[in-house]
Amino acid sequence: MHICESIESLQKETESAGDGEKVRESAEIFQEWGCSESDVSKIFERRSSLRKMDIHNLRSKLDILSRLGINSADLVKMIHCRPRLLNCRINIDLNERLVYLEGLFGSKEVLVKAIVRNPSLLTYDFHNKVKPVIAMYESLGLSKNDLITVLLSRPTLIPRTNLNEEKIDYIRRTGVSECSKMYKHVVSIVAISRMETIHEKMMNMEKYGLSEDDYLGLIGRSPLVLTLSVDKVQRNMTYVLGTMKLPASVVVHNPFLIFFNLERVLKPRFQIACKIEDMGLAPQIKGPLLLRAMRMSDKRFTKAFISCHPEGVARELLTAYNDAKCVRRLAESSKKNLHTGFPF
């Protein structure tokens, strides 16, 4: 029994020594490549399997990144973003992929920037995913510059894209022309959104009297509306229609009403507008001026509607305004953000 325990102990020590040697070799390769000890520590912390990676395989992949012009700082960002990057077969279709991508992005510098933002450009299925998705966007009228913009701003565009006839019809019904600067954003956001999500958000706006065409027109004016949660839209719309007494059509032409923070912007400023009216002060915040007031910076709003009054009145209004901004949503501090997959 004693002999068996000794053998097991010796095996563990040998394995431990072997693992330690592999970790040291991997660390040395990263350091030779230009990484500092801090960089190596961050890389190993993010992807522990790189500690024991085959050194020849590791050196080969780092050589590929060197030829692209990627440095150690870039590598740390890339591993943090895609921990499995160096475990993937980035040499598959590499030359053809790089020629194609450099032609798409226009220069090696922009290509490197795109790869650092989305390292998976080196690992996506080149023939069955990358090229068909790019061709799909080009068929919808996006220019090379438009494609560069959306690929840099939405790094996961390629795997998320899913277009069908219904989505293409929605894009057409937004009323945004191919010449518009908004077109690329409308197309890309609709393309990466789930159909069930689009339907859910349409139905939510219908509860407030907006038709499908109204909502699509809203997307055409502000594509990011499609990324807002149903809960946020419900809360803002309920306040805008129920308390501010504005018609739903106003939101279509002023999307900021559902973007702005309800507790910190909309409520405090509307409460000050009501207080100014109750006190019979001027200028009163009504009609078009109310919408302008909502869009002002905090400093400008205070100067235009609070500081302009006599000292005593201004102090009372400022106190009311600051108190209103300190009110938080019930149980906001304990709210949990639960996401199921892609947010939109």
UniProtKB/TrEMBL annotation:
Residues 1-21 are annotated as: Disordered. Pfam families: mTERF (PF02536). One of its GO terms (biological process) is DNA-templated transcription termination. InterPro entries: MTERF, MTERF_sf. The keyword Transcription applies. Residues 10-21 have a biased composition (Basic and acidic residues). Keywords: Transcription, Transcription regulation, Transcription termination, Transit peptide. Belongs to the mTERF family. This is Uncharacterized protein. It comes from Salvia divinorum (Maria pastora).
